[in-house]
Design goal:
- The structure is a single chain.
- With 493 residues, the chain is mainly α.
- It has 20 helices and ten strands.
- The protein has helices spanning 49-58, 62-76, 93-107, 110-119, 127-136, 159-170, 174-193, 206-221, 225-233, 237-249, 280-289, 291-296, 306-316, 324-333, 349-352, 358-368, 374-392, 405-423, 454-457, 467-478; strands at residues 81-86, 89-92, 140-143, 151-153, 203-205, 253-257, 264-268, 337-340, 343-346, 403-404.
- A three-stranded mixed beta sheet has the order 4-3-5. Strands 9-8-10 form a three-stranded mixed beta sheet. A two-stranded antiparallel sheet has the order 1-2.
- A hairpin with a 7-residue loop joins strand 3 (140-143) and strand 4.
- The longest helix is centred in the middle third of the chain and has 20 residues, at 174-193.
- It is elongated and about 90 Å long.
Length: 493
């Protein structure tokens, strides 16, 4: 794999605030990687400008130089005259930052490279072409962190407008703005060579992809969330590209540290040999999570957190099962509408658009994107897949009422907790207690997003205690379209 060329120079003035990272909760609530002013600023507040320059020139530490230049930019601006002269021109703070950038490139201090490049507003080569390639493959892009700061790119833009949109989306977080441009280049490379990686993905949400990359890095290194952003930003372009590839492909990886340089490298794990399953219910599971994932769950040594992690990954990547949008179109023919997070997909869409129309798929996607928690979004997708089977197999002639999908998921979670009490399962330590316990911030003690028990998120899709079983039971008890007596010819199971 090739690495990204270093950005070319551009002389725009921009003032910034640098960073220590925002700590995120131990339950990985997908907090954005945000940069703020560092604690080191305080030590320079009582130091004179000339004294800071003397400390800067005598320092051999790139990190210390970065802290001093950061303070100078924040307090005085990029165009502040330092009093020095070179080749008959005054030396500005901007020139000091450019020199720091060049040193960081030579020493391969990638975190400083990305941050200083962002502050200097250096354009990334071929960024416009990369965005165009993704759009040509019918992949929309969003930049920024959801739910409030996302900006959508649906058409090619001139280079300056594109960079401005990206930097505006991340505010003062210049490092993540540069990382976003870098990832767009890699995504364009992958979609040219391996378009199957993007199967059933209509919209690439770069902010969520960065968050899931940080989460996977923290998991692999077993480190605290507040440390992982610096580790992510300090990956070389080659390792950053490898990490993104593993996220998209779903391949397992681990991190190896060099004894000489101390840098991390990404190493692929060997895939497991597994058998195949058959049957309508298993085929539905395969379409949602892939056959390899389903069959891994049958192994006795299944790792804790595997399915929670998988749902977070698929939800963050906006990946849906094959044929998902056309199935939703069929489902809409049988009900007045589908409600998600207060948004509704009306039945009238089936009269205005065909089942395979991209415009219809984007309508469905826009409703699903109102869900900020990736793992909860994925449970909603699973619930919708079960509902589509009711329509496809004509189990009932009509569903008769608007479908509130979130309510179905919550009911499934409630039934799951009731069963956990009966079998004295793991959830009795948290959400299945007689008196539900909350954290001081009002969240579930298990860390489950959207008030769903984390043990439910971490349940395999199939099996007696699988999420699909509980979703089916929830639908059977929640909807009024099923007869009260008699038998139903149900081939779902």
């Amino acid at each position: 794999m090739s690495t990204t060329p270093l950005p070319s120079e551009e002389g725009e003035t921009f003032q910034f605030q640098k960073a220590s990272r925002s700590p995120s909760p131990e339950n990985e609530d997908w907090q954005p990687i945000t940069r703020h002013r560092t604690q080191s600023d305080a030590q320079f507040q009582d130091t004179e400008f000339d004294d800071l320059l003397r400390i800067l020139h005598s320092s051999e530490s790139l990190e210390e130089q970065g802290d001093i230049i950061h303070y100078l930019v924040v307090e005085f601006g990029l165009d502040q005259d330092t009093g020095g002269v070179e080749y008959g021109k005054p030396i500005l703070v901007r020139d000091l930052l450019k020199e720091l950038y060049e040193k960081a490139c030579q020493q391969r201090s990638w975190s400083i490279v990305r941050h200083s490049a962002g502050v200097l507003r250096k354009p990334v080569e071929d960024l416009t072409k990369a965005v165009t390639d993704l759009l040509v493959h019918q992949k929309q892009l969003t930049v920024g962190m959801p739910p409030t700061n996302e900006k959508t790119i649906t058409a090619p833009l001139p280079s300056f407008e594109l960079r401005k949109l990206i930097h505006d989306a991340y505010g003062e977080d210049e490092s993540t703005a540069m990382l976003t441009q870098e990832l767009i280049l890699y995504l364009a490379m992958f979609i040219r060579t391996e378009p199957e990686l993007f199967s059933e993905m209509l919209r690439l949400r770069i902010g969520l992809i960065i968050q899931v990359m940080a989460s996977e890095l923290a998991r692999s290194l077993n480190c605290q969330s507040e440390d992982v952003s610096e580790l992510l930003l300090n990956l070389s372009p080659y390792e950053m590209k490898k990490l993104l590839y593993h996220i998209l492909s779903g391949k397992e990886f681990t991190m190896a540290s060099s004894a000489h340089s101390g840098n991390f490298s990404i190493v692929s794990c060997k895939s497991l040999k597994i058998s195949t399953k058959t049957g309508q219910f298993s085929r539905l599971m395969n379409s949602i999570h892939g056959p390899e994932d389903l069959e891994e769950q049958t192994k006795a040594e299944e790792r804790q957190g595997q399915w929670l992690r998988r749902r977070r990954l698929d939800g963050a990547l906006n990946r849906v099962p094959q044929g998902f949008y056309s199935r939703i179109w069929t489902l809409l023919e049988r009900c007045p509408g589908i409600m998600v997070q207060g948004r509704i997909l009306p039945q009238g869409l089936t009269q205005e658009m065909t089942s395979g129309e991209l415009k219809f798929a984007l309508q469905v996607e826009s409703v699903l994107n109102t869900i900020p928690q990736p793992e909860f979004r994925q449970l909603v997708v699973e619930a919708l897949m079960v509902l589509t089977l009711i329509a496809e197999y004509s189990i009932v002639p009509s569903l008769g009422e608007p479908l509130c999908v979130a309510s179905i998921v919550y009911t499934a979670n409630r039934i799951f907790l009731e069963d956990q009490v009966q079998v004295e399962g793991d959830a009795t330590l948290c959400c299945a207690k007689p008196q539900k316990e909350l954290t001081p911030s009002g969240e579930l003690v298990c860390g489950g997003a959207a008030w769903i028990c984390q043990h439910f998120y971490d349940s395999a899709p199939s099996g007696s205690y699988g999420t699909m079983t509980y979703l089916i039971r929830s639908i059977a008890t929640s909807l009024n379209c099923f007869p009260n007596d008699g038998e139903i010819n149900c081939s779902v199971m």
